[in-house]
Amino acid sequence: MTKVNIYEIDEHPFELRHEVKKLNLRLDQIADSLDKAEFKDIIENYSNPKKRMITNFTAGLSRGLGLSLGTFVVLGLLGYILSIFVDMPLIGKYISDLQSYIDAYK
């Protein structure tokens, strides 16, 4: 029992060239998709623990700082808007009580 190779160069040169061209095209597509996915950067990031720790530290620091500043701005604007409504008849009493509690805490 002999093994028959279906891609003999002498018998099927056109088909062989066509298959090689299709495989090269597919390999180029795979290489392009890996470049788009920045696979090399991901591998470098996870192979260097020091770089990964520095990156994660700076990301956490910037997230925490942004969250703190954002909370400060939103609460400041909310306090300013509520201070405008102190003179209103119905909710002014509740807001003035809230402001007195805040002033007592200071």
Quick structural gist:
This protein is an all-alpha fold and 106 residues long. 78% of the residues lie in helices and 0% in strands.
Keywords for this entry:
106 residues, 4 helices, mainly alpha, elongated
Task: Write structural notes for this entry.
The protein has 106 residues and is mainly α. 78% of the residues lie in helices and 0% in strands. It has helices at residues 13-36, 39-47, 49-84, 92-105. It is elongated, with a radius of gyration of 34 Å. The N and C termini lie far apart (96 Å). The model has no long low-confidence stretch (mean pLDDT 80).
Write the layout of secondary structure elements.
Elements: H1 13-36, H2 39-47, H3 49-84, H4 92-105
How far do the termini sit from each other?
96 Å
| Residue runs with pLDDT of under 50 for 5 or more positions | none
Largest sheet, in brief, is:
none
What does the radius of gyration come to? 34 Å
Strand content: under 5%
